[in-house]
């Protein structure tokens, strides 16, 4: 039995797949809720469902944590946020199309700790690889799959 996702939240400050989210969600009659800080404001975003918050280090994360509910879907590349959300039954997918699962929490946090320690010592850390067309297509396919039948991802 599949479960329909009621809300799609987007951590929109640095989300490279905003257009794909709008297109896929519209085909499922779901209106995504974009959340960003005011430094990402533009008048053309007012025709969509955007919430703009004061600039703060975790303002978008806190808003999404406080407003999302079990069964909702969040698009975010912030894996620390993902760990908090999956523990309350929220589905999280990255812009590269990876579903974050609750049982990955320890690994995610250990990797974050190692990354922080490495940065303290060497002040260098290699970031993610460049975002590609293939990443964009993979995300689109995964989002379509999740919105059409959430059971396959549990």
Automatic annotation (TrEMBL):
Entry-linked Pfam families: DUF188
InterPro entries per UniProt: UPF0178 (IPR003791)
Annotated family: Belongs to the UPF0178 family.
HAMAP family per the UniProt record, alphabetical: UPF0178
This protein's name: UPF0178 protein HM131_09350
Organism: Halobacillus mangrovi
Taxon lineage: Bacteria, Bacillati, Bacillota, Bacilli, Bacillales
